[in-house]
What does this fold into?
Amino acid sequence: MRTFYRKCLLPVSMPSQGNCARIDSSAFQHNIAHVKKRIGTEVGIVAMVKANCYGHYVSSLSDMFSGVDMLGVATFEEAMALRQAGTETPILLLQGFRNREQLLQCIDQAIICVVHDMFQINLLQSLDVSQSLQVWLKVDTGMCRFGFMPDQFVKAYQALVDLAIVDSNFVIMTHLSDAENSDQQHTLGQLQLFRQLTQGLSHPVSIMNSAGLMSYTDQCCDWVRPGLMLYGVSPYTDRVGADLGLRPVMSLESFVYVIKAIKAGDKVGYGCQWVCPSDRVIAIVPIGYGDGYPRHVKAGTCVLIRGRRCPIIGAISMDSMMVDISGLPTVAQGDTVVLWGRDLPVESIAQAASTIPYELLTQLGARVARIAM
Ligand SMILES: *Cc1c(COP(=O)(O)O)cnc(C)c1O
It folds into this structure.
């Protein structure tokens, strides 16, 4: 109840007063429990909360996170924001510190820093402090993004072991780039390389994101780093969250603002892209790409009104869209319009927009109120 982020700004004149993303914390709890059931009690969970909890804007203080061991963010600024909000949960900073100032603040705020490049080790070596810092050492096993290349690994590892200020039982991690692919070749290569590199080392290790955790459950190791699945969304293109036993956390809702009749030949929306084939009734729904709904959804993409699918017609505007409700004579002004949610998976809208649900969720705009339920 306390994760209410931004109040609806529209005046109260209709049963539904604005666009909102309803955030179902019980669904999040369900998804956490689902992860725990899969991985067992020995494995720690880093809940990924980068990009404002994948666009959900849940407070890091929310009870939602009571079942997780650590919170994961991408940037230094995100880590500091969590601490400023009063979070006492351990925080993992995936991109690590970028300079000496940030490093000192990470020490001060007890942020766990991923070390992925030699410049960071150099910064650590130049320090002369009595405090200690927890780090995770990241190796790049086949993504060519953050992490030491395999031929640099031993050198980086040894340098960290030699550093007195670094907690010596650091986690060694890597990241999978293709775990959602049913063709497992690349991932199996990554896993094998990681095993080779860490063979004989007694450090805890961490590999799995959501797709890794679900596709390679038997190799979850000491720490998992699920993001998307905690929000109830599937990383696979051929399955939605419900197929995996997950419950979507977000329901994106607008409302029927205006109902009007249009005639055959009328042209709907910018660019006259949709020409009305016969007399129709349409609803104008005040949400658009300015709120983060993707402009390029394919023809026939639907919204839900009173549980029925109604196709979007014409180009989506910045602040509104038009929907054909001819088949639904009972629609009334103020009716709730679901853009995505339990009965209209965000995965399907992402597919219709030729993108991935990660993008839709994280790009949901600031005009949309997030309301906890
Ligand atoms: C974002 C991220 C994750 C979480 O990925 P999901 O696919 O959302 O589960 C895990 N690890 C790293 C390094 C990440 O950047």
